[in-house]
Specification:
The chain has helices at 7-12, 19-52, 56-92, 96-124, 128-131, 139-151, 153-168, 173-193, 216-240, 257-288, 293-329, 333-369, 373-386, 390-405, 410-435, 437-461, 466-470; strands at residues 196-202, 205-212. By secondary structure, the protein is mainly alpha-helical.
């Protein structure tokens, strides 16, 4: 199998795949997605490190609203996948007229949706840090950071939509490359926007470097500008250079009831799930915030450091969505089942390995993220608690991605909600009152073990394949 092999075309061949072909397909789609997600978390590391040099209060101000930005990110993802999963199915069945029409509809809906969320977000930005029990010394910076984040939501929405469309059409390389570019741009923008004009010495040479000195606001703007350039290039690739997606002058732009219904059926459970999960993170912040800025900063940096472990899981989860979606479109339930388990076990192995590595290198990671020793020490202690849960965390992430490719989003959403709201939040609140920040991370680790086991059971029962089996042989809905 060559590196340019069309995965969707291979799935449509009426023959079993060899084990080598299966592994190569998973690698072909997973590796670029993993690199894309690592690039994204690298941007978070860069922001955290650069802002961390400004002190614990600056870090805490971003940490206070981070969970709220995750909530909005979940809404953005839900909208994108509501349409892109349909593109994966149509691509698997070689219904390319339908992929064009779905993509056009998604551009209209995503633009309107992004503008509405931006309006809501910028309206509540001045009040959010107060609602989250933030200290008076960090409210102003936290509000400014969240306002700028929300102002660029339409850009983030279109960037996520075009990235998801490229991935579900089988192109994982372009999103990976553009996310890496965004990472580099983020460094450049932050360098000038966060810090004031200062003198820098390189070896024996000293020279003055201009800077805007915007602090926390500069970090928000730097990331926003980086995403803007990435979005422009991502849309260019999807709209004009990808045969299965590109906009054609003579194609229809009208919204279609069936497509909108399917996008809601896929996206609404995801949106509810992401909102509830993010709200749980916000509640966690409210529980942690009274412990003080040191604990709040350690909690935030712990989340950032852990992301390096679980971002590969989300990359493989994106590949699982594409593979299962295209397999269903090609009417290959055997491949849908095979790829669901292969991606899940691969992700569990990789995230387990990254957790072992992180356990030993986390002191250096926290030293990179913040110069505050108290934050470093507490962050190391709490992160090491949760690293033991990474393999089963991987199971929940990737199994959820596989089920999403089969348009099974309602039951996974319910499972996620029950796990986090029935186990993590009550247990976390109780343990924090007894042993401080460590209690929240013990509750998180315990809940992730339970959630991973639940999703493995869901995958094993194969109820997500029942609809596919019942509809086998029926043509896909045509535009």
């Amino acid at each position: 199998m060559t590196k340019n092999l069309n995965v969707a075309a291979l799935m449509r061949e009426n023959r079993p795949l060899t084990r080598k072909e299966e592994f190569m397909i998973v690698a072909k789609l997973s590796l670029p997605a993993i690199l894309a997600n690592i690039s994204e978390i690298t941007m978070q590391y860069i922001d955290a490190s650069m802002v961390g040099t400004l002190g614990a209060n600056a870090s805490a101000s971003i940490g206070l609203v981070t969970s709220s930005t995750w909530l909005i990110g979940g809404l953005i993802i839900a909208c994108a996948y509501g349409f892109s999963v349909q593109v994966a199915h149509a691509t698997g069945g070689a219904h390319y007229d339908r992929t064009h029409h779905i993509f056009k509809q998604s551009l209209i809906v995503a633009t309107i949706y992004g503008i509405l969320i931006a309006l809501i977000g910028t309206t509540i930005a001045p009040h959010l840090p107060i609602w989250l029990n933030g200290g008076k010394d960090i409210i102003k910076d936290a509000s400014s950071y969240f306002f700028i984040f929300c102002a660029f939501i339409p850009i983030r929405q279109l960037n996520m939509l075009s990235m998801a469309m490229l991935q579900c059409s089988g192109n994982m390389k372009t999103p990976s490359a553009l996310n890496a570019l965004a990472c580099l741009l983020d460094i450049v923008f932050n360098f000038f926007l966060i810090f004031p004009t200062r003198t820098i010495q390189v070896f024996s040479y000293s020279f003055e470097v201009f800077g805007f000195g915007l602090g926390v606001k500069g970090a928000a703007l730097g990331t926003a500008f980086a995403f803007t350039i990435s979005c422009i290039l991502m849309l260019k690739k999807a709209c004009f250079e990808t045969p299965s997606l590109q906009i054609k002058d003579n194609g229809p732009w009208h919204l279609e009831l069936h497509t909108l219904h399917e996008s809601l059926r896929i996206g609404v459970p995801m949106a509810i799930e992401q909102c509830a999960l993010a709200l749980a993170q916000i509640v966690s912040i409210r529980i942690v915030a009274p412990l003080g800025n040191i604990a709040l900063a350690a909690h935030s940096f712990g989340d950032t450091a852990e992301a390096l472990c679980y971002m590969p899981g989300y990359g493989i989860g994106a590949a699982a969505t594409t593979l299962i979606g295209q397999a269903i479109g090609a009417k290959r339930k055997d491949l849908a089942k095979t790829f669901a388990w292969l991606t899940t076990f691969t992700g569990m192995f990789i995230m387990g390995l990254t957790a072992i590595i992180m356990y030993f290198i986390c002191p250096y990671v926290f030293a990179f993220l913040t110069p505050v020793k108290a934050v470093q020490q507490l962050g190391i202690e709490v992160l090491r608690i949760e690293l033991f849960a990474e393999p089963l965390f991987a199971a929940s992430i990737i199994a959820c991605g596989a089920l999403r490719g089969a348009q099974d989003t309602l039951i996974p959403a319910i499972l996620n909600l029950l796990s986090i709201w029935v186990i993590r939040i009550p247990l976390g609140a109780y343990l924090v009152s007894k042993i401080g920040l460590k209690g929240m991370w013990i509750a998180m680790a315990f809940e992730l073990h339970i959630r991973g086991a639940i999703f493995l059971i869901r995958l094993k029962k194969e109820k997500w394949l029942e609809k596919l089996m019942a509809n086998e042989g029926k043509p896909l809905q045509q535009a």
